[in-house]
Amino acid sequence: MIQIEEVTKRYGDTTVVNGVTLTVAPHTVTVIVGTSGSGKTTLLRMINRLVEPTAGIVKIDGEDNRSIPGYELRRRIGYAIQGHGLFPHRTVAQNIATVPTLLGWEKDRTEAKVEELLKLFQLDPADFGPRYPHELSGGQQQRVGVARALAAEPNVLLMDEPFGALDPIIRSKAQEDLTAIQKHFGTTIILVTHDMEEAFHLADKIAVMDKGEVVQYATPAEMLVKPATPFVETLVGASERPFRLLGIETVGEAVEPGSAEGRPVPEVLSQRDALSELLWSGRSALPVAAANGEILGRVTLQAIVKRAARPR
Amino acid sequence: MMFTLPNLFRLAVLVVLLAFLLQPAWFEAMLTPLVQENAPAIYNQGSLFWLTVLHLRTVFIATFAATVVAVSLAIIVTRKAGAEFLPLSRSLVNIGQTFPPVAVLALAVPIYGFGEKPTLIALFLYGLLPIFENALTGLTTLPPTVVEAARGAGMTGSQRLIRIELPLALPVILTGVRLSVVISLATATIGSTVAAKTLGEVIIAGLQSNNLAFVLQGGLIVAALAVLIHDALQGLERTLAGRVHV
């Protein structure tokens, strides 16, 4: 658990972060969104003390993060940034081994961990381990950057626009990978982005920052239904709201008894994608299948349209 | 890669240089037309080979000392604690560069006497600037995300310096060393005006006895050394730059 209590950061007369209080539950993904200059990156960097707060306390699992030296704290917290920041003079394997080496892990343990992570990120250890970062594609570099952040098995992973430099197709793949990895390790992730789509896609909870303050901290659904301020409403995108709402829920939640023609859609598909499929194929209902192929029922256009309406 | 035309040319220069230093008599016929009757065509007041070794030794010691001092200074002023010394260090090394080596010799001789010491001081001061400026550039133009990542991974200040900053800045630092070495190779010749054992001795002897062959062979040896050392260091820089991929 991460508790941010009344944290303020001032540079001279400018207040960048102003009295922010946030509690992040363990094993969840929290996304901090906001326009540039809203203080979101500064807030993130105060968690691992790359920036020292002017006032306030950050507690990690109940312990003040100033109780140990900054560099030791940072070895315990994963940190991945935009543009990956891989060390250009070190191989992929050496890059991933950075924190384990700093912590003085035994060679065998480090090597095993590097191999495990490379496999997890779908990179062949024998092929990619000895390569240099410049020999990788943008998407591969980004994956190695995240693997490096996870190498010492941190409970907490901080990510500063980690997918900002990727093209849309690779980005959505990277987001899927991140979700899978978060489930695999149960890591608590705090991610900063200015991309609302990304926020809704990844977040268990979203914190919206504006002018150094958190204006709303809520689940994606809540944020859509009850935006706290006009700023949040604008950020969410008024015309996007029904689609975002459908994007959060899966077809499984909207399934009803009955049958329909055509190829079934998986129950984990988002309702938004189901709507898209319904509209494109000109049908009014689709069969829904479980992962094992069993038909669970159907999802109708009518039901989805109803679900897209503002909840009362 | 090894046998490209420029490399073959460099090899040829090296072979001719070594032959000239070890068996100067072979080249006597070529140089005789340049001298007046009965004057020697090959320097005869000492071994050319030993003068070259001593010349290189002087340059090496001076450059080594300048590298250690300039790089240390650049490291100090690029740390947070030493940032305020940046303008001061800049002025100091600039003075070192603008003060003519001849003037340094003139000032150092009364204190240290004739011989190698005044030359070493002059070359050391003269060589500081290129190394310092390059080290400064190398250490301040590192990719910001890389430095940020090193900090975020939990490296201490000295770990960042040794594991990340210096290896990445090394090719640029080496460029400074190369400039300094080439300048020093030429400048070292004036050390012979205060009795330092360098190739300047050959040139000065030629000037004093109006012997064009002496002047020419002293100058050519220095030039050949400068070209060969320059290219060797440049090759090393390229290899290193290839390794750090920046």
UniProtKB/TrEMBL annotation, chain B:
Localization: Cell membrane
Protein family: Belongs to the binding-protein-dependent transport system permease family.
GO CC terms in record: plasma membrane
Sorted UniProt keywords: Membrane, Transmembrane, Transmembrane helix, Transport
Protein name: ABC transporter
InterPro entries: ABC_transp_perm/SBD, MetI-like, MetI-like_sf
Pfam family, one: BPD_transp_1
Topology within the bilayer: Multi-pass membrane protein
Keyword Membrane among record annotations: yes
Biological process, per Gene Ontology: transmembrane transport
Top-level division of the source organism's lineage: Bacteria
Signal peptide feature range: none
Species annotation: Sinorhizobium medicae
